[in-house]
Amino acid sequence: MPESKDINRREFFRGAAIGSLGLAMAVEEINAYALSGEQAADEKPGPPVNCAVIGLGPQGRDIMTSLAKMGNAPIVAICDTYDAAAFVKRAQDIAPKAAFSKDYRQVLSNKDVKAVFVATPSHKHKQIVLDALQAGKHVYCEAPLAVDLAEARDIARAAMGASAFFQPGLQYRNNKMHTHVASFMKSGVLGRAVVGGRAQFHRRMTWRFPHGTPERDRELNWRLSRATSNGLLGEIGIHQLDIASWYLGALPVSVVGFGGIIQYSDGRDVPDTVQVIVEYPKNIRFNYTATIVNSFDGAYEVFYGSDMAVYVRDQRGWMFKEAKSPVLGWEVYAKKDTMQIGDDATGTGIALVADATKLMALNKEPSKVGTDVSKTALYQSCMAFLDSIRANKKPACGPLEGYIATMISAKANEAALTGSKIVFQKDWFTL
What we know:
Elements: H1 4-8, H2 20-36, E1 51-54, H3 58-70, E2 75-79, H4 85-92, E3 99-101, H5 104-108, E4 115-118, H6 125-134, E5 138-142, H7 149-160, E6 166-169, H8 176-187, E7 194-202, H9 214-220, H10 231-248, E8 254-260, E9 273-280, E10 284-291, E11 299-305, E12 308-313, E13 316-321, E14 336-340, E15 346-352, H11 356-361, H12 366-369, H13 377-391, H14 399-418, E16 421-423
Parallel strand pairs: 1-2, 1-4, 2-3, 4-5, 5-6, 7-10
Antiparallel strand pairs: 7-11, 8-9, 8-16, 9-10, 11-12, 12-13, 13-15, 14-15
Helix pairs in contact: 3-13, 6-7, 7-14, 8-10, 10-14
């Protein structure tokens, strides 16, 4: 379960060989898509959905803040086992009308609660989620689903058989910039060959929350212990590793990893720096690094094809074309940014603008306005979950996607801890 400020500030379908007819169809699809964007959703406020948030740490409070901004997602109940007055007040300042409880079962027995957001530490998800589904509540569970893969499978299986809806907190699956770029990837516009991709998360921080008592210190710093956390790869890397599988439209073949404690020798046994190489079919490889020792170059995802590359930083994205790549048509009208792409080289990035249809309906030019960055990936993820409830339609990203992402990131973490290569088994991807 990442802290959303660590995800949103950073501040994820396939590439295939296609003939000239296929390329023409792909170009036509992209021309229409890039100029018009996705169909603009009806943003008139829908009927209210009463919500509860279980787990009031930084991620839980960020979820509450997102819900509070929507205006049609009243928070009627909040819950945490820690009930210090100052701690509870921070949450109640966001949702002053919400009833506080130390026992999540009281929240689940509240008939006014329709949707439950589970933002507790990852190793505490299982029973809460199972009980919430049993109580008939729609459940949004932060990613990863669990630390232990058997528990993650139990959650996903229960969610698959539940009458209520379940959505994992894979924020980028509903982030408009990432879904916008996903359509580019799916069309095959990167070229006849997809070379691979890379991503990183670099942010200087200790990942430690100091506290006066040893018991509370252990509760707060569960991410720093292998017993309760899959570390940087399981808690943060899961989102960008999921992007790779989503964009490449494939399941990984193997992963090799490396990691270690470079800076913070403070009793933790979770690496502060990791690197993994994930192999996909057709010799495609995705390189990923994460460190909390250094902040240089922040976080991003980039994918390379024979005709172009796409580059995404949270809410912004660009396309870099090769000199002799096919002309798509619309790019001559697009906003172009000059960017540093090497030690001694710059390149022209063609801005990819999500929500273009909405902007054009307002008589605004997407190339001049750019993407709306006011709504974070977390906000959009929570909104998609609540919209699925209103429409009585299962979320596009569900239990299976949540389990597979959890499993891949856990195996990547295992590879990094052991410095070994892990070959993915076919039955690991099934429930």
